[in-house]
Amino acid sequence: MEVLSVSVDSVHSHKVWNETELSKMVDGGIPYPMLSDQTGELGKMYGVYDEDEGVNIRGRFLIDPQGIIQAAEILSPPVGRNPQELLRQVKAYQHHQKTGEVMPSGWVEGGQTLKPSMDMAGKVWEVWQPKKG
Question: Residue 3, Cβ neighbours under 10 Å: how many?
Fold first, then answer.
């Protein structure tokens, strides 16, 4: 797995932000590259560049080894992201790639999975029940 972050800020701005802010939240700063997209070209490719503001809107994309986007989330600035949910989804996609199994809603590592089959339709409830309450 490879993690990259991208914004329209300069490489220098990323360095300062990592040293003055992120390193106080994550011991040693973030352990992945922060890429500069000052022209917004990458943001435009992924549909997150705000032309009026000249910024990339907060978005995350899970891209599989074949380069296919498997999941995307775009949030406006008032709402923070959920790193635990991102990690849960990464683990679910990795598990699926290894086993071909599918994960029900809210699946966590080690939880019950479903084995796809032609006769699964209408029987998922027999294998998986959502938690109540």
Answer: 11
